[in-house]
Amino acid sequence: MTRHGSHRPVRLLLVLVLLGALAAVLVVWGPSWSSRLTLEGIPALGPECVVQTAGGEVGLDRGEAQRATTAVAIRDRGQEADTSGIDEAVLQRLAEGPPGDAGPSLSCRGSAAGDLLEQQVTPTGLTPRAERLREAMADVFGDQDLGGFAPGGVNRAGESTHNDGRAIDVFFRPVTEENRRQGWLLAHWLVAHAEDLDVQYVIFDDRVWSARSSRGLWWDYDAPAPGNEILRHLDHVHVDVLRGNPG
After folding, report:
1. Cα 71 from chain centroid?
2. Which residues, including other chains, have CB under 8 Å from residue 52's CB and lie 6 or more apart?
3. Which residues, at least 6 apart from 26, have a Cβ–Cβ distance to it below 8 Å?
């Protein structure tokens, strides 16, 4: 009994050390692991969308997120918008961004449709899905500085959704805090409406959101070299739509 009992403190110490090491790893790598796990379809619990406000997280269903992001965009253009039933703290955070940093404030679960058919490029240089997205943005945000597509198509190096006519760049130049705030108004609106508009990716300001993420978290965007303002998507919001399956 004495010999067996003497091993218990050592085993307990080893367990505590291993738990401590695991906790440290999760603190450092947790967000990265979370992003990778969600891409594998692990289901998430809780509200469909979340807004980080000064008072903490506020959960919204998708319809509420769509109403909130649309109202903020319309009010930013100096027009009246219906904000009844929407938490004022949500509207304020979406309109102003976090204090000192116009980064992401809203996240929504991804919901990529799996029954879409692949589409061909139209004379505008966009697929019908991408054209529908462009029209929806114009209805809410008015005239925008657009790029990334052209009649007859574009031919960018490597694999690019721009080459398929599925991507649009919305420019906010020069890179300033006000333009970053404006960019996030659009980025949040796109995420909230991603399910209805078949959005696949939204990339802006060193962040990326994916419709294939069941938790819908934003994560760091790994820009290719040389990592300038354009490649880091600091001066424009990139949005593309789902390809669909071959008919």
Report:
1. 19
2. 93, 98, 105, 106
3. 33
Full-model pTM: 0.82
**How is the chain split into domains, by residue range?**
50-241
What's the order of all strands across the beta sheet hosting 56-60?
56-60, 49-53, 106-108
98 within 8 A of 52, measured Cβ to Cβ? yes
Ranges of the chain with pLDDT below 50? 1-4, 25-41
Within 8 A by CB and 6+ apart from 115, the residues are 245
pLDDT in tens, 88-97: 999 999 999 9
| Cα 20 to Cα 18: distance, rounded to the nearest angstrom | 5
Write down the pLDDT at residue 31. 37
Say how many Å lie between the first and final Cα of the chain, rounded: 72
